[in-house]
Amino acid sequence: MRAAVFDALAAFERPASAYDIAEAVSKAQDRRVAANSVYRILDLFTAANVARRIESENAYMVNRHPECLHDCIFLVCDNCGGTTHLDDDRLADGVRAAAKQQGFNPERPVIEVRGLCAECG
Ligand SMILES: [Zn+2]
Ligand SMILES: [Zn+2]
Fold first, then answer.
1. How far is the CA of 78 from the centre of ligand 2 (A)?
2. Threshold 0.85, pTM exceeds
3. Could you tell me the residue range of the domain that residue 21 belongs to?
4. What is the number of the ligand closest to the CA of 64?
5. Which of 29, 59, 86, 120 could bridge across to 79 with cysteines, CB 3.0–4.6 Å?
């Protein structure tokens, strides 16, 4: 089941929701797969850093560099849904530092930029 979910996720060009993935796995396996069981597996994937969650889309992407332990930054196109993953530790550290200045313990910065990608803009 994990392999099936991973394959389905990897086949999407855009971030995929648990429902998108459940539908793809259901088709591939010719049986009904519930989004709830997909969610549980996606949680394991994100904990292992082999997938990343795009919070503003409630969707997931395969992490092409799972050894990357940055606070990943995602650029999400409002038109086509295309999502670019980039890492800039100076920016992310700045967000963490600003949070700490407020006495806030920043466990997991979520940095997503909405707009138009190079092709749509
Ligand atoms: Zn990253
Ligand atoms: Zn676009």
1. 7
2. yes
3. 2-62
4. 1
5. 120
